[in-house]
């Protein structure tokens, strides 16, 4: 009889005890917030009791993975304060003693270790499956040996150098060719000046025969 | 006629020119060179800002009026002088009146200052261009800090685009006094910019003439592509509507008219000597009248066109920020009140704020300062001009576009082409008068002279790549060319119309073009433009005196934003030096010429006396 009463008490008391352990702002608990519609849009699945069970299983897995000796079970993860946002609180109890809670720091370490697996289990990401208080580690920046901008810079400046050298060399060759041509043709430059080429425009005049020196034949 | 030709021949011999001056291959090259020079960064980043500040569509009225009254006549006058004298600014003004050769010298000094700092903008464009070739644009996200827990603090307080500009591009110090060393990346980009300038001018107008086909036309192609991209962006219509809504009451504000005048003035590049230099390579009978009108119209319509593009992108950015703000508020409400995700959508956020305030007042009050007010008008009101618009605001808009790397590359190539086109004009304004001087053209070829000028400007320009370089850049930008140009152009107009004489000018133009000067040009040049210029000049002086100690925006890394700081005394002295050095050329040269003439005259008298006595 006594045993039966005790058993009944346990059945009633256990969940009540569990309720005491897990509550809003529990000192060793974490709040989880899930944004299904943001993450999956049209393909969002419904959040129901099965999903909650899945969460418990995933958390148990995470705890097992971190503390390799201990065998955590689904019952060790207690959930409470569910809202329609889809947010809830959870606490983790020790497998040996169901009244003892695992401290916050250990839970955090376990979550951090398996964060990627937990996210993928629910098809979510760090942003849409939030553990409030556990900040995701950001990806380390990729530092290439040569910064990419230097490569593009090298290509461009090489092309410009080549262009300048080509232009200078070609004009040098042209000048040398012209000099060689000049000594063969004669004094082209002087002719142009005599003809009155000013500002690049030929002042074409007509030869005025009135000023030619043919008087010498008519001298008396 | 014969007397004039003898006069011209004697001029040539004193100037020491070769028989044949270099020329543009065809008039189209000249027009494109002028377009390439006039259409620059100011069209893209200053005109849209002014339009927004002074009442949107209504600003077009003073702008177009000033174009007709001030811009086109002065542009015409500079082209006429260059084409007639066939010399750079120093030689041309000395030929017009020996006492006022200093005007040309002042132009060269101002152009030199412009050359020094303008190419730094091209260096920044190169930097951004090269950094666009990455899978994630570096200004899209804040970099993570050393222990990978969060982002770099300075970036958190400012925005990623601001952080990239001030920290990674400039590595700016806290004030103009803290100099620091040279930023190697910037120095390399500046070197590249100057090498490209040299490549474009190495063979004189022969090479420049071919380059301007590209630098004048390609930016339009990019602008059209951007226009199509811009107006199809979500929220672009907000920006365009905001810009073009005319606020006619702004027309009563005198600052509107002053800004319209200065914008026309600086946009056309008057007074730098570049237009004189370009026109000096023309055929004598080139029809510059038609070309002056065409180039001015093209320049102004490009400004208007560019501002449509700018504002559609602006509208996109403002709408994006507004919707991000709404999204953040929505999430905050959902998380605080634990409502299901689909209860609040972006459309009814405002409605829900009121609702929740009514139903859960204490919980709502606990939100406190975290609840932001999202205002589209406020986003659009953040008017930015200058380098801030181009490098911070635009890059912020670009990072949110799909395929942002492509748009980034395209945009910075356009900035580069605009900047390079203007640089060509600036450098040619310095080189042409120098190469016309007898003692320089005797000892070195054009290529060597060009190389030396580029090298000199590069070495001095390295000062702008130091940690405080941006502050010196701003100083040069604000004071190096503004006041001196007004003075130079005022003296130019008075010289041509009253000292040289409007009648002589008329005859020269008739000689070149074949028809008389229209009375529009006569009235504008002799009457309206000088009056407007004097009014602008007086306004500038009054504004400068009233402004008190000149200040600048210093970047504060703790606060993550710019703070207004006063210039230290030595910097203020330097500003004074900048202003005085170009303006003083005019009276000093007049004095020097006067003294030389007096010595010559007294020397001649002595010689004549001695021969008579002998």
From TrEMBL, chain A:
PROSITE patterns, per database record: COLLECTRIN_LIKE
Transmembrane segments: 149-173
Record-level GO BP terms: positive regulation of amino acid transport
Topological category with respect to the lipid bilayer: Single-pass type I membrane protein
Subcellular location(s) per record: Cell membrane
Coiled coil: none
Main localization category: membrane
UniProt keyword Transmembrane helix, yes or no: yes
Entry-linked InterPro entries: Collectrin, Collectrin_dom
Record's GO cellular component terms: extracellular exosome; plasma membrane
Residues making up the signal peptide according to the UniProt record: 1-18
Keywords carried by this UniProt record: Cell membrane, Glycoprotein, Membrane, Phosphoprotein, Signal, Transmembrane, Transmembrane helix
Sequence ranges assigned to domain Collectrin-like in this UniProt record: 26-220
Any one Pfam family match given in the protein's UniProt record, by short name: Collectrin
Classification via PANTHER family: COLLECTRIN
Protein name as it appears in the record: Collectrin, amino acid transport regulator
From TrEMBL, chain B:
Lineage, highest ranks first: Eukaryota, Metazoa, Chordata, Craniata, Vertebrata
Family: Belongs to the sodium:neurotransmitter symporter (SNF) (TC 2.A.22) family.
Lineage top rank: taxon: Eukaryota
InterPro entries: Na/ntran_symport (IPR000175), Neutral_aa_SLC6 (IPR002438), SNS_sf (IPR037272)
PROSITE patterns: NA_NEUROTRAN_SYMP_1, NA_NEUROTRAN_SYMP_3
Name of this chain's protein: Transporter
Membrane topology summary: Multi-pass membrane protein
Pfam family, one: SNF
Transmembrane segment boundaries: 30-48, 60-79, 99-120, 182-201, 213-237, 257-281, 293-314, 409-431, 452-473, 479-502, 523-542, 570-595
Species of the source: Oncorhynchus kisutch
Subcellular location: Membrane
Residues the record lists as binding Na(+): 38-39, 43, 267, 299, 418, 422
Record keywords: Glycoprotein, Membrane, Metal-binding, Sodium, Symport, Transmembrane, Transmembrane helix, Transport
Annotated GO MF terms: L-proline transmembrane transporter activity; metal ion binding; proline:sodium symporter activity
GO biological process terms held by the UniProt record: glycine transport; L-proline import across plasma membrane
């Amino acid at each position: 009889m006594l045993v039966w009463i005790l058993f009944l008490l346990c059945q009633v008391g256990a969940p009540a005890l569990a309720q005491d352990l897990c509550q809003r702002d529990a000192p060793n608990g974490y709040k989880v917030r899930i944004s299904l519609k943001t993450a999956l849009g049209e393909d969002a699945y419904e959040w129901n009791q099965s999903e909650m069970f899945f969460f418990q299983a995933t958390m148990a897995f995470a705890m097992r993975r971190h503390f390799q000796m201990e065998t955590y079970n689904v019952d060790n993860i207690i959930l409470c304060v569910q809202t329609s946002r889809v947010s809830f609180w959870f606490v983790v109890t020790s497998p040996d003693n169901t009244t003892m809670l695992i401290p916050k720091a250990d839970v955090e370490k376990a979550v951090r270790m398996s964060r990627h697996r937990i996210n993928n289990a629910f098809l979510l990401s760090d942003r849409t499956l939030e553990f409030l208080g556990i900040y995701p580690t950001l990806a380390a920046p990729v530092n290439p040996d040569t910064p990419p901008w230097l490569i593009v810079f090298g290509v461009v400046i090489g092309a410009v150098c080549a262009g300048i050298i080509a232009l200078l060399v070609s004009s040098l060759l042209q000048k040398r060719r012209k000099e060689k041509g000049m000594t063969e043709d004669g004094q082209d430059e002087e002719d142009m000046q005599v003809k009155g080429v000013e500002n690049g425009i030929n002042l074409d005049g007509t030869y005025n025969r009135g000023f030619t020196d043919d008087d010498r034949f008519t001298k008396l | 006629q014969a007397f004039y030709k003898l006069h011209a021949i004697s001029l040539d011999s004193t100037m020491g020119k070769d028989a044949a001056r270099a020329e543009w291959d065809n008039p189209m090259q000249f027009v494109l060179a002028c377009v390439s020079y006039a259409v620059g960064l100011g069209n893209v980043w200053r005109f849209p800002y002014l339009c927004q500040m002074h009442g949107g569509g209504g600003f077009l009225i003073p702008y177009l009026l000033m174009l007709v009254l001030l811009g086109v006549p002065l542009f015409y006058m500079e082209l006429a002088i260059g084409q007639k004298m066939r010399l750079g600014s120093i030689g041309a003004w000395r030929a017009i009146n020996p006492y006022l050769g200093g005007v040309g010298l002042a132009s060269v000094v101002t152009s030199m200052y412009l050359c020094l700092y303008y190419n730094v903008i091209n260096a920044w464009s190169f930097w951004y261009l090269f950094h666009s070739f990455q899978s994630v644009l570096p200004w899209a996200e804040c970099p993570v800090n050393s222990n990978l827990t969060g982002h770099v603090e300075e970036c958190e307080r400012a925005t990623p685009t601001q952080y990239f500009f001030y920290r990674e591009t400039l590595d700016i110090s806290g004030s103009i006094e803290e100099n620091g060393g040279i930023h190697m990346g910037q120095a390399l980009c500046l070197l590249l910019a100057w090498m490209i300038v040299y490549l474009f001018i190495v063979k004189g107008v022969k090479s420049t003439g071919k380059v301007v086909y590209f630098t004048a036309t390609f930016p339009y192609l990019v602008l059209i592509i951007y226009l199509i991209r811009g107006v199809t962006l979500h929220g672009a219509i907000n920006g365009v509507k905001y810009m073009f809504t005319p606020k006619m009451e702004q027309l009563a504000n005198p600052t509107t008219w002053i800004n319209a005048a200065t914008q026309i003035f600086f946009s056309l590049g008057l007074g730098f000597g570049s237009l004189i230099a370009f026109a000096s390579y023309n055929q004598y009978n080139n029809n510059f009248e038609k070309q002056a009108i065409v180039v001015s119209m093209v320049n102004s319509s490009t400004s208007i066109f560019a501002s449509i593009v700018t504002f559609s992108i602006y509208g996109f950015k403002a709408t994006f920020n507004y919707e991000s703000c709404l999204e953040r508020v929505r999430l905050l409400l959902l998380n605080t009140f634990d409502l299901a995700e689909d209860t609040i959508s972006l459309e009814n956020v405002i409605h829900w704020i009121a609702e929740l305030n009514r139903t859960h007042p204490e919980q709502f009050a606990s939100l406190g300062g975290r609840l932001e007010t999202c205002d589209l008008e406020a986003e659009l009101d953040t008017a930015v001009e200058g380098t801030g618009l181009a490098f911070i605001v635009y890059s912020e808009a670009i990072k949110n576009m799909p395929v942002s790397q492509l748009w980034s590359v395209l945009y910075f190539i356009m900035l580069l082409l605009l900047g390079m086109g203007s640089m060509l004009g600036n450098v040619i304004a310095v080189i042409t008068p120098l190469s016309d001087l007898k003692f320089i053209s005797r000892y070195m070829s054009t290529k060597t002279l060009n190389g030396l000028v580029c090298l000199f400007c590069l070495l001095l320009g390295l000062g702008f790549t130091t940690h405080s370089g941006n502050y010196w850049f701003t100083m040069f930008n604000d004071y190096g060319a503004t006041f001196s140009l007004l003075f130079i152009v005022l003296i130019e107009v008075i010289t041509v119309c009253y000292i040289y004489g409007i009648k002589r000018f008329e005859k020269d133009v008739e000689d070149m073009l074949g028809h008389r000067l229209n009375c529009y040009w006569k009235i504008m040049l002799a009457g309206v433009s000088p009056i407007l210029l004097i009014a602008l000049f007086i306004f500038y002086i009054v504004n400068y005196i009233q402004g008190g100690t000149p200040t600048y925006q210093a970047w504060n890394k703790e606060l993550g934003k710019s703070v207004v700081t006063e210039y230290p005394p030595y910097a203020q002295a330097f500003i004074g030096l900048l202003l005085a050095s170009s303006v003083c050329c005019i009276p000093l040269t007049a004095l020097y010429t006067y003294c030389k003439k007096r010595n010559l005259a007294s020397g001649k008298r002595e010689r004549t006396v001695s021969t008579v006595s002998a």
